[in-house]
């Protein structure tokens, strides 16, 4: 199922998220070759790589790709839309800034906000595609923290539309453990090696290996597209509702903190007054003892007289 654009066409919105260097942009390049009949000898490049320049300006005239030679730095600085079409179905893939970037926590937080702004920019979301390195046995600390924050900000209804793609591996070489809050999502494995080396340096043996991996990856993407078509789009209004509730809670917490601060200030003033009173009483007693003044307590009975 997909979102209806008009009487004759439908739209499928897919947001791609993942750690820097896991292959989000590479996935877009593979999809470009799938939709435009590319091959190892005629690669279609939507997003430039370290070795290959973009040759698909019709898909994306301008790019936000930086640090192409540094695999530790996020290449995509903005959420970028890539649209493909099969008959009357439009597939909108949104490549997002990488998380766990070397920019640190603040950069991750900024990129996470960009991702949510991207999701909320359209009415319906078909899938959240999580890209992870399948050769890593466990999530890194930073990516785990980001995913936990992501988990806190999306409603449960979205979990049925999360798809996991494990890169740099096959189904029989994968070394990745499951993610706790994902309940058996569809998983695809991709050996995305075609764009990670210089084609001019490929030997005949290297080409044969890459061709084998290429055929499997293209078939995997065909299955991936079929899965997307069968998903039911989810309204993003629930995300807005959660944000509104979160803002209300933040406002209440802020007011509560102010009240606690005021109560603490009052308590501090009472303690100060009590201490001042004790000091005053001690000074009176000391003064009385030093001057030999004896004090007597006189009880006065008050009688009421009436004129007879």
From TrEMBL:
Pfam families associated with the record: MMR_HSR1 (PF01926)
G domain span: 14-147
InterPro entries according to UniProt: GTP-bd (IPR006073), P-loop_NTPase (IPR027417), Sigma_54_int_dom_ATP-bd_1 (IPR025662)
GO terms assigned for molecular function: GTP binding
The protein's name in its UniProt record: G domain-containing protein
Species per Swiss-Prot/TrEMBL record: Rotaria sordida
